[in-house]
Amino acid sequence: MAVFELVVSGSKVLRSGPSKIVTESAFVTLTHTLMGNTDGLEIQFFTKPITEAGRADILENGARELRKSDFAALVLFLDTNHQVRQVNLSYVVPGTTVARTVAWKPEDLRQFSNYKFDGKRLLLKSKGLYNESGDEQLKLSWEVNLNLPVFERIKK
To answer: CB-hemisphere CA count at 13 Å for 101?
Structure first.
């Protein structure tokens, strides 16, 4: 369903070297509470299949249990026409957590142009790369191909 890779070539806090997450399942939730009242789609990718208990964990607890092992998440911030205006990527493996805004400029958002959201399903095909140089020197890459139903997050 999706592959995410991280290569750290220089960092004071992150372990140097490559790591990879190959996922078996994904779950998409629609939220209305990003950055105030902005709509967004959160796509959580897991290295294990999602069971009924896992589905409940995602909807009721934000995937607290499923996030105890390797996972990645893409958050697509949407405008009023449901078009992608920003994308954040979280990458988590034991000992390493990286969260970055990987697209917000028009040229970067093109990596997410093969996208369709009709309010009930999300189709997304994206292959991209995010480079960071400076204090942190890292590369995040992803290859995603999904067609999944979208669920509303349960409001508490």
So the answer is: 8
**Lowest mean pLDDT: which of 32-46, 75-89, 133-147?**
32-46
The answer to whether 135 touches 12, Cβ cutoff 8 Å, is yes
pTM above 0.85, yes or no: yes
- Please give the Cα distance from 15 to 93 (Å, whole number): 11
Give the pLDDT confidence of 50-101 residue by residue, as tens digits.
Answer: 888 878 877 777 777 777 778 999 999 998 888 999 999 999 998 889 999 9
Other beta carbons within 10 angstroms of residue 47's beta carbon come to: 15
Neighbours of 34 (CB within 10 A): 17
CA atoms within 13 A on the CB side of 128: 22
Q: Is 65 helix (H, G, I), strand (E, B) or coil?
A: coil
Interatomic CA distance for residues 82 and 117, integer angstroms: 7
